[in-house]
Write a structure and sequence with these properties.
The structure is a homodimer of 254-residue chains.
Chain A lengths: L20 E2 L5 H5 L2 H4 L3 H9 L2 E5 L4 E3 L7 E7 L2 E7 L2 E8 L3 E3 L1 H6 L6 E4 L3 E7 H10 L1 H27 L2 H15 L5 E3 L4 H7 L4 H10 L5 E4 L2 E4 L2 H8 L3 H4 L4
Antiparallel strand pairs in A: 1-2, 2-9, 3-8, 4-7, 4-9, 5-6, 5-8, 10-12, 11-12
Chain A binds a DNA duplex (30 and 30 nucleotides) through helix 9.
Chain lengths: 254, 254
DNA sequence: ATTCAGACTTGATCTAGATCAGGAAAATCA
DNA sequence: TGATTTTCCTGATCTAGATCAAGTCTGAAT
């Protein structure tokens, strides 16, 4: 496993809270459309939104530090967020969160400290819903409760899948499957753009940037062409034959 | 990562279902005492129990195969269960489940296929609650809903912790922390018994049995004595100084 | 444009941990 | 009780991937 030492930290120094603005009604439909909020009663939704704030953050801002109390449920409205963890001077990327979805739901539910830190990767708009409101409405609204539990089960299954990926596959196999997943996500076109920097992808796959670079070269025989952050898969079936994708690991929707 | 090929399989061949017996009322208090069932209305509990079966299984029986539809929520009443996953001829231990707790809750909730297989490690008594009953009662009983979501959040956080363990620590560090956790679990005595076979521990920690053996030797300088499955920690503080245990990884209760 | 910092690559090494090959000890079974 | 199986240990290799040390390239700032 890659035990990279942290060589630099981004956007740190000032843990000063950005001034947040109450959520404007214009954003309501966007949040309401989230699976998590679509099945609840209007009055409960509005009561949740009353306490909710929305803020746009610049890139590389640390929104959450692991160990902090979980005061807010976060919803990514735009941009992208990296969840990461540190121990003993090492750091690893745990996941990348994209719109529109929540993060650190489990900590909110349990009223327990965050297990992961979060930073913006790009300019991102985040809705912050007070955790205690979430817990209160959970007890009142069965539709919301159902949605929460489904979302949480989904999150759980995603982590299990990535653990399987990590423990059962070599880094070359992990990368191959990652590329197939991304390709599917972008409509199955032969060419697509990597949605994150390679060094973060490396951390996510549990390897060093150097080795990711070599892994890309290792996939050339299977029809993978790399040009900066543009990937072309010239021989889908050949790559799939090598990668052996599996619904119980790679299907991130069930 | 350890990509062990499966050399043999236990208790397989016959996927014949063991005949299950309806749950006797004498077991009700035991299940009722579970955090998951303690807060629900009596009538809902009884209605759940009506459809519940209890069965004692011999060791090395495969209860669940990954990919199967999730028909039952399982509760371990006694014994112990190994959750494991396979891909491309490799196998890895994902977790060990001990009484009294549930497993594959997420699959039950989502009505999705199991992501992990399960086998008994020893003679084990299991309660099987029909998944659709669980989902039905969830919608009726707020106390049960609350308990489910808490349990699920707990499971999620446990997997996150073990992922951090896996990605951020060397195998020696993982083993050291594992030993400290076990010691705490058994009341903090200097000497305790490993609750599972070493080869399974190896798989859980993502390494080969050979390397686990060497890892134990590597911990001798930090005051770890091994005698079969009996472990003695002669210098707790020295071991802890090396292991650097962390509440955000090693505290399995929050 | 020029400079500069950070991202990425490439090659040369190093190392943690896997694999292979025995053998000892323990558990299971006849 | 001895025979057989399985776990566990130990040493000798091997290898995937980390680390180290230059590079090049890119994109933003002056």
């Amino acid at each position: 496993m890659n035990l990279t030492f942290i060589k630099f930290r981004h956007g740190v120094g000032e843990p000063k809270r950005h001034v947040t603005k109450p959520m404007p009604e214009s954003h309501f439909p966007e949040v309401r459309g989230l699976h998590l909020f679509s099945q609840m009663a209007d009055e409960h939704f509005l009561s949740l939104m009353r306490g909710t704030y929305v803020q746009t953050f610049p890139p590389q801002i640390e929104l959450i530090q692991e160990g902090d109390p979980s005061d807010f449920l976060h919803v990514v409205l735009s941009g992208s967020i990296e969840l990461f963890s540190s121990w003993n001077g090492r750091e690893t990327t745990m996941a990348i969160v994209r719109p529109v979805s929540t993060f650190i739901l489990a900590a909110t539910i349990k009223d327990a400290p965050y297990l992961m830190s979060a930073r913006t990767l790009e300019k991102s708009r985040i809705a912050l819903i007070p955790s205690q409101d979430v817990r209160a409405v959970f007890d009142e609204d069965a539709g919301f409760a159902r949605a929460i539990v489904t979302e949480l089960a989904q999150c759980y299954r995603s982590v299990i899948k990535s653990t399987k990926d990590l423990k059962l596959r070599s880094s070359l196999e992990q990368l191959a499957n990652y590329l197939l997943r991304q390709q599917a996500r972008f409509g199955g076109e032969a060419t697509f753009i990597l949605p994150i920097e390679k060094r973060r992808l490396a951390s996510q796959l549990g390897m060093t940037p150097e080795n990711l670079s070599r892994a890309f070269k290792g996939l050339i025989p299977y029809g993978v062409e790399v040009n900066g952050n543009s990937i072309t898969i010239t021989d889908q079936s050949e790559l799939a034959r090598f990668a052996k994708p599996n619904v119980l690991i790679d299907d991130f929707h069930s």
